[in-house]
Amino acid sequence: MIRWQNLWRFIPLFGLMMLLLTGCGDQTISALKPRGPVARDQLFLMKLSFGIMLLVVVVVFVLYLYVLVRFRKKKGDKDIIPKQVEGSHTLEIIWTVIPIILLLILAVPTVQYTFKLLEDHRDNKDALHVKVTAHAFWWQFEYPELGIATAQDLVIPTNKKIAFELTASDVKHSFWVPSLGGKMDTNPGNTNVYYLQADEVDVFKGKCAELCGASHSLMDFKVKSMDQADFDQWVAKMKTPAAVPADAQKGEQIFKDNCLSCHAVNAQGLGAGPNLNGFASRELVAGILPHNDESLKQWIADPQSVKPGNKMPALGLKDDQINDVIKYLNSLKLK
Ligand code: CUA
């Protein structure tokens, strides 16, 4: 049996593991590898505050070790208490003034950057506007200027400001794309605004960063950045969905009877569930599963086994009906 008293022995091991594991990173979801101007500004602030903290820790530890060694009781020393110092004005002033200076060094750029990011956001004549609505446990993205809506995969052009308006339909969530910038809360009943921008073509990972329910940790999304020309093409494709092939029409009918009341399948429809226009071209199923028939089957047959607490009902479809629906979903390509 484990002696709980002895567990403290493992603390250095845990510490070492923590150091090792913090080295595990992913280029597409790391605030330490900024991929846009907002994330770069924010990383500068992180480095600045970390630098100041490191300086304080080093100075304190050096003093501590110095005192340990300097005032150690040596062999032959008598049991005496050294002279006690109290109320030294000079020392009091020094250790009050130094933190004030450090806080000023931290505060001035932080306030400066906060207002700079706000100014940059307000100067958004050329920005692309995206309205984000967080639902338990998925993300809805609307492009009011373009007349399209999508879910789970946010598609954006590179080197262009994306001005976000963020809200939620049920509880508080938080929109976070670490590679592009810090998080922003999405609150039911009000709208938060900020902007992000991507330098290059890539697929970034996004997360919900506010504990929102049983599947909070599964409330992922993707951000696909593409060149303006490719983005324009994507918009055009979203507006003219591919025709449903003959062998998928049976599935289309089942979908219409069972799913269409929540899932729109057109350019800008919104419903209780994600808009599935162009679904076959999305990265993942339900935001977390690899995009294949097996995942779709699992999701449609038993949604709660994939994302506990989500609002999609198990429809009780038969296996061949599910297969037909999958055939239909696979036909929803952006041609
Ligand atoms: Cu939504 Cu956590």
How are the elements arranged and paired?
Layout (H helix, E strand, L loop, with lengths): L10 H11 L15 H34 L18 H34 L5 E8 L2 E6 L4 E4 L1 E5 L4 E7 L4 E5 L3 E6 L5 E5 L5 E7 L11 E7 L1 H12 L9 H10 L25 E2 L3 E2 L2 H9 L1 H4 L12 H12 L5
Helix pairs in contact: 2-3, 5-8, 6-8
The site of dinuclear copper ion has 9 residues, from loops.
Membrane topology: Multi-pass membrane protein
Catalytic activity: 4 Fe(II)-[cytochrome c] + O2 + 8 H(+)(in) = 4 Fe(III)-[cytochrome c] + 2 H2O + 4 H(+)(out)
EC number: 7.1.1.9
Task: Describe the protein in words.
This protein has helices spanning 11-21, 37-70, 89-122, 228-239, 249-258, 293-301, 303-306, 319-330, and strands at residues 128-135, 138-143, 148-151, 153-157, 162-168, 173-177, 181-186, 192-196, 202-208, 220-226, 284-285, 289-290. The termini are far apart. The protein has 2 domains: 27-58 and 90-227, Cupredoxins -  blue copper proteins (Immunoglobulin-like, Sandwich), CATH 2.60.40.420; 246-329, Cupredoxins -  blue copper proteins (Immunoglobulin-like, Sandwich). β11 (284-285) and β12 form a beta hairpin. The longest helix is centred in the N-terminal third of the chain and has 34 residues, at 37-70. 38% of the residues lie in helices and 19% in strands. With 335 residues, the protein is of the alpha+beta class. The chain has a 5-stranded mixed β-sheet. The protein contains 8 helices and 12 strands. Dinuclear copper ion (CUA) binds next to loops.
